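Hey,
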Amino acid sequence: MTAYEIVKAELTAQPRRWLVTGVAGFIGSNLLEELLKLQQIVVGIDNFSNGKPANLKAVKDVVQRKDWKRFSFVEGDITNAKTCRRSCDGAQIVLHQAALGSVPRSLAEPILYHAINVTGFLNMLSAARDAGTRRLVFASSSSVYGDDAAMPKIENRIGRPMSPYAATKWIDEIYAEAFSKLYNFSSIGLRYFNVFGPRQDPNGAYAAVIPRWIQALIRGERIMINGDGETSRDFCFIDNVVQANILAATVNTAAAENQIYNIAMGESTSLNELFALMSQGVRKIGVRNVRSKLIYCDFRAGDIRHSLADINKARRLLGYDPTDHIKEGLARTMAWYNIQRGHRKPGKNAIRRGC
């Protein structure tokens, strides 16, 4: 059995009480789904600024009725310290996903990003400590590596932040380290690398590249690439991120606590390569005569040129073992989006869950 299979069996045998912030978002709702399938007790908080009620309904539709009853929802904002304290009451583990993403939006609204990503994080960190929570696992970002050009990215070597978003995530890591030293409070930060998968929103000016391109390919719309298309990323399917959060929440070795981990596949894909894979993928789900055209634009301010993670630390200390490479992840993601658009009914194995 893998480390994750062992942990899932242990959790099912002895459920715990979890708090998931940003529970109605892309990552938060996928975490909620897995935890409920493992028969955990979950409190979720969201203010629906990014999250969607539809994501919670989607989880309700796929879990058993008895498991859905284990979930309670708080509509609230993490910038409100009282809401954070109330939500943390009785929680054994906090999975903190609530934040504003998007590098370009952070350039336009740096004060808002600081309020949510830093002040909101500090509110939740303080509330979890005061509530006697066993551990807080929080979403950091590969953007923390900034202008460091070395590849692959290793956790103890970062550059200078290139955007307000990156700066907020770096500050979160600093606060978490301070709380571990000053208050002996356990936390683990996960630096996500370009997460994608079902329930990721393809709409809006700041939508992530994969859901935006899937929608454009299905509709036959033009696809914009910032730069020459040779910019590369380490794309990570959502199930791998869910696995990492649960492993980080439950690991019980001292060496693994109060650490930062890269969460990725450890593989690099250029945007040109991504377009080719996705063009092939939409044909496989029944979309014919793909006519989307690539349009190359200027490089985008605040973007890093290349990103590739070294995931050995997470493998060694957490037992992290990513299961879905980009091709498999894209196939599952495209099948999901196609079903949502009503192109065809899902086949027996159209979307599989779990690792």
